[in-house]
């Protein structure tokens, strides 16, 4: 696969349901989930960045800090486009460790110049933090920010978005609660044997 664009791992969430910062939890043989995700995406993209409120990571990485003190994926999306001045960015949530190369390639294969975003959709719904976003979505993002609507799903409904269908929910599992994290560790250990 050609490496035409950058990837950004969104790691700025509050992790309130987990009770501790999930981006800093160990995973997959790496000291942190953030480092696990960076290593995985580094094999597919020229540059991988982490989006967060501050540089809280103890490994070599490039961090894009949010341009606002508010906390939301919309703020993160605006911040990364303003910082990188890129035409397109692949976005992935730090707490979705089972999104693999197959899923990412399928999303990138649907890249069309007429679209603002190509986002994964599994049987349980859309996965806004797993997709390719274009800078052309920014005017709509600013409008939504002005209205105080931080929901990426609403932004994607307004934009020219292609929802790329996937048959299973399991690759998009988010690690929000301690029990989901423990289950994911076991699953990862079993599948990587």
Summarize the SSE layout with pairings:
Elements: E1 6-10, H1 33-42, E2 48-52, E3 62-65, H2 73-84, E4 88-93, H3 101-109, E5 117-122, E6 125-134, H4 138-147, H5 152-158, E7 161-165, H6 178-191
Parallel strand pairs: 1-2, 1-4, 2-3, 5-7
Antiparallel strand pairs: 4-6, 5-6
What does this protein structure show overall?
The longest helix has 14 residues, at 178-191. The protein has a single domain, classed as Spore Coat Polysaccharide Biosynthesis Protein SpsA, Chain A (Alpha-Beta Complex). A seven-stranded mixed beta sheet has the order 3-2-1-4-6-5-7, sandwiched between helices. The protein is built from six helices and seven strands. The chain is an alpha/beta fold and 193 residues long.
Distance between the termini: 26 Å
CATH topology: Spore Coat Polysaccharide Biosynthesis Protein SpsA, Chain A
Mean pLDDT: 90
Helix and strand sequence: EHEEHEHEEHHEH
Kindly provide the radius of gyration, computed on alpha-carbon positions and rounded to a whole number of angstroms.
16 Å
* Helical proportion, percent range: 25-40%
Q: Decide which structural class fits the backbone.
A: alpha/beta
The CATH architecture can be given as Alpha-Beta Complex
Measured by DSSP, the beta-strand proportion falls in: 15-25%
Task: Name the CATH superfamily classification.
Answer: Spore Coat Polysaccharide Biosynthesis Protein SpsA, Chain A
Contiguous helical run count: 6
Oligomer: single chain
Largest beta-sheet details:
7 strands, mixed
Strand order of the largest sheet: 3-2-1-4-6-5-7
Broad CATH class: Alpha Beta
Number of domains: 1
